[in-house]
Amino acid sequence: MKILLTTVLFIILAPVAGGLLSGFDRKISARMQKRVGPSILQPFYDVLKLFQKENVVVNISQNLYAFCFLFFTVFTGVLFFNGADILLIIFSLTLAGIFFVLGGYSTFSPYSFIGSERELLSMVADEPMIILTAVGMYMVTKSFSVADIAAYGTPLFFYIPGVFLGFLFILTIKLKKSPFDLSTSHHAHQELVSGVTTEFSGKPLAWIELAHWYENVFLLGIVYLFFAPVPVIGVAVALLAYFLEIFIDNINARVKWQWMLKSAWGAAIGLGVLNIFILYIVQ
């Protein structure tokens, strides 16, 4: 019963939280650029409008890939908030990303194709640090279970601060913020139009947007996990991390994919691996 309740609450509340985060993102970004900006509820209006629009497809399979992207992203969040194995959660998240890439490839659009290529490169850049995050949490708690990790008596940040900083670094990639918004972007400066999502419209595009909202809530959930024993601090740090990503997004221009790979792997090795090695020596 508890698992069912948690699942239902996540499915209902996560897109609400994700949509509000997106609304605050737009509002804060506008203020930073000395604009008024749209309403905080504008993302909800946009998604509702997409559900009402005609679905024009290039390839019928692209709708299936978009739905699978949404399904496995939701499944990832359900597993996480039900305290499942974090390795299984990472696998589910990766699978969702693969369906997103396949959706871009299936449209045969040059913009979508290049966007999909860059999305794959983004996954190659951030996956090592995500795996190191799971390894670091296991070394402290001796468990891959999210429930056990959350129940650990002391905030994990005190044991693996390097892993935390490394995860914050690749969070910019996962949230598709500048300087790493290479594959798709809500900003007008993206030379690929909308990258992976260029040929999507109507309901499938709404599914993709909802999937990103679910994913953002899940990613902030991992940030929270570092401070889970003190819930108030955990929520505060998660929100602060999101604000930091908005700030970074507005003060940086996009970089080339080569620099993204080098910097992400550098953060994984320099912060994640070093922290885990020191933790291994101390233990």
TrEMBL record:
Its ancestry begins with: Bacteria, Bacillati, Bacillota, Clostridia, Eubacteriales
The answer to whether keyword Metal-binding applies is: no
In its keyword annotation, does this UniProt entry include Repressor?
no
Q: Which UniProt keywords apply?
A: Lyase, Membrane, Transmembrane, Transmembrane helix
Annotated Gene Ontology cellular component terms: plasma membrane
Q: Membrane topology per the record?
A: Multi-pass membrane protein
One Pfam family here = NADHdh
Question: Which compartments does it reside in?
Answer: Membrane
- Which sequence ranges are marked TM in the entry? 64-81, 86-108, 120-140, 152-173, 217-244, 264-282
Protein name in the entry: Formate hydrogenlyase subunit 4
Q: What Gene Ontology molecular function terms does this protein carry?
A: lyase activity
Q: Which PANTHER family match?
A: FORMATE HYDROGENLYASE SUBUNIT 4, FORMATE HYDROGENLYASE SUBUNIT 4-RELATED
